[in-house]
Task: inverse folding
């Protein structure tokens, strides 16, 4: 990364002396305090965890001497954690480089982008930047982008490290009035993930129906051990806007496996799927379902979101449970917004109930 930082610095100096460009500063700061509770007989044991993220960056864009459009951005993170529990795990702050990339336009509507990038496609189920996490997720690589009748992105890793090793993907998108289709093939974490996501809107966009099918295979078991070890995900969603204030929704995620395969979601943003407590999905076996109902309501300056999940395994009735998630968000002004959340999980195995609460404030200059 030292060589990449040096190249970016030299590029900035070159731009400032030879080309005309526009410059934009970006930044935000987010503070979140979370309280985890586990019921112990008639009492609740508490554990409070607070984190903060400050993200600052600058972007440049313009045209080169041949008239090709180009852009560049550099963004840094500063993460801090305070934990109130049995062990003191407070951090002194962790600075990191979140994004640092250069892109330029090529002939035939092709753009190339290289550097450290926060990748996010579609709803983030397969490739996401973990925007919920106060660290975020980014990858070092090179991407070729084509925009036309269909949009095609082809990316691959640029350096080898623990977080960025042997990954590549192709993502295809076609969006027309009332219909959107996404397709992807991702190689990462020793797995091949491929599939398709369809989205239909009708009744003047009041009704939105989505369908996903994704399949994963394992390198070693498929190519070396000659074993058909796979995992699959089928997702169906339905959302209906009753009026400007009220919307109703629901759906089901169905996971399946062959020969012991288990769905891997480490490139996706799964905090928004299968319960926001992020507990049940990590402890399920390979074959399970998550059926859910959702109500969203706008009340003056408040947005209220209520979701009920019932999660069950097809092979083990003790796995899974019922979870209720409630969120309230408010935009104080164009610079400040804040929110509250409450979740409660009742496991199927009659073990202790657990709760999760949070309060979050985000400031954007």
Result:
């Amino acid at each position: 990364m030292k060589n990449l930082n040096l190249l970016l610095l030299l590029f900035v100096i070159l731009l400032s002396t030879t080309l005309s460009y526009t410059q934009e500063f970006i930044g935000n700061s987010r503070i979140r305090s979370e309280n985890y509770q586990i019921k112990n007989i008639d009492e609740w044991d508490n554990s409070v965890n607070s984190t903060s993220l400050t993200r600052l960056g600058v972007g440049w864009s313009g045209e080169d001497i041949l008239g090709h459009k180009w852009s560049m951005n550099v963004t840094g993170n500063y993460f801090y954690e305070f934990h109130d529990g049995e062990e003191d795990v407070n951090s002194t702050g962790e600075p990191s480089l979140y994004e640092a990339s250069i892109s330029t336009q090529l002939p035939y509507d092709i753009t190339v982008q290289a550097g450290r990038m926060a990748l996010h496609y579609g709803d983030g189920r397969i490739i996401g930047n973990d925007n919920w996490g106060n660290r975020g997720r980014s990858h070092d690589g090179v991407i070729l982008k084509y925009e036309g009748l269909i949009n095609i992105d082809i990316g691959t890793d640029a350096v080898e490290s623990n977080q960025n090793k042997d990954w590549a993907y192709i993502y295809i998108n076609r969006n027309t009035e009332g219909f959107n289709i996404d397709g992807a093939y991702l190689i990462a974490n020793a797995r091949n993930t491929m599939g398709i996501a369809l989205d239909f809107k009708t009744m003047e966009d009041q009704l939105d129906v989505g369908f996903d099918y994704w399949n994963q295979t394992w390198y070693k078991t498929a190519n070396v051990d000659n074993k058909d070890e796979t995992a699959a995900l089928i997702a169906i969603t339905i959302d209906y806007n009753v009026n400007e204030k009220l919307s109703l929704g629901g759906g089901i995620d169905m996971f399946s496996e062959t020969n012991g395969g288990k769905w891997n979601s480490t490139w996706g943003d799964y905090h928004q799927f299968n319960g926001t407590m992020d507990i049940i999905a990590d402890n399920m076996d390979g074959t399970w379902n998550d059926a859910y109902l959702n109500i969203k309501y706008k009340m003056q300056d408040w947005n209220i979101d209520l979701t009920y999940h019932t999660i069950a395994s097809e092979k083990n009735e003790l796995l899974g449970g019922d979870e209720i998630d409630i969120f309230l968000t408010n935009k104080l002004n164009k610079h400040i917004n804040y929110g509250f959340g409450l979740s409660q999980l009742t496991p199927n195995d009659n073990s202790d109930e657990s709760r999760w609460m949070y309060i979050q404030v985000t400031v954007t200059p």
